[in-house]
Write a structure and sequence with these properties.
- This protein is mainly beta and 82 residues long.
- It has one domain: Beta Barrel (OB fold (Dihydrolipoamide Acetyltransferase, E2P)), CATH 2.40.50.140.
- It is 0% helix and 57% strand.
- It has strands at residues 5-15, 18-28, 35-45, 56-61, 71-78.
- The protein has a five-stranded mixed barrel with strand order 1-2-3-5-4.
- The protein is globular, with a radius of gyration of 14 Å.
- 15% of the residues are buried.
Length: 82
C-alpha cells in the first residue's frame, strides 16, 4: 500500500521543523449538487526548515512523529517569491 500524498499551500512556518499545510479539496454537496471548496490543515515535518509561507508543497503520510504530526514534506513544488 502506497503512502497517501497531498498537495497544498504552506500557511504557517512559525514552529521549529514543522509547517502547517492547507489542502483544498472540491466536493459536491450531497443534496444540492453545488461544488464546494473544503480546506483541511495538516501539520507536516520539515526537517531542514526550508519551507516558507506561500510555498506549494507535496506532503506524504508517515508514522506518527508527534501528537499532531503524521505527514512529512516530500518536496517543494513552487517557492513563493516574497
Amino acid at each position: 500500500m502506497a503512502a497517501k500524498e497531498r498537495v497544498g499551500l504552506v500557511v504557517s512556518n512559525k514552529m521549529d521543523k514543522t509547517v502547517v499545510v492547507a489542502v483544498e479539496s472540491r466536493v459536491q454537496h450531497p443534496k444540492y449538487g453545488k461544488i464546494m471548496v473544503r480546506t483541511k490543515r495538516y501539520k507536516a515535518h520539515d526537517e531542514e526548515n526550508k519551507c516558507k509561507e506561500g510555498d506549494r508543497v507535496r506532503i506524504s503520510e508517515t508514522r506518527p512523529i508527534s501528537r499532531h504530526k503524521r505527514w512529512t514534506v516530500a518536496d517543494i513544488l513552487s517557492s513563493s517569491e516574497i
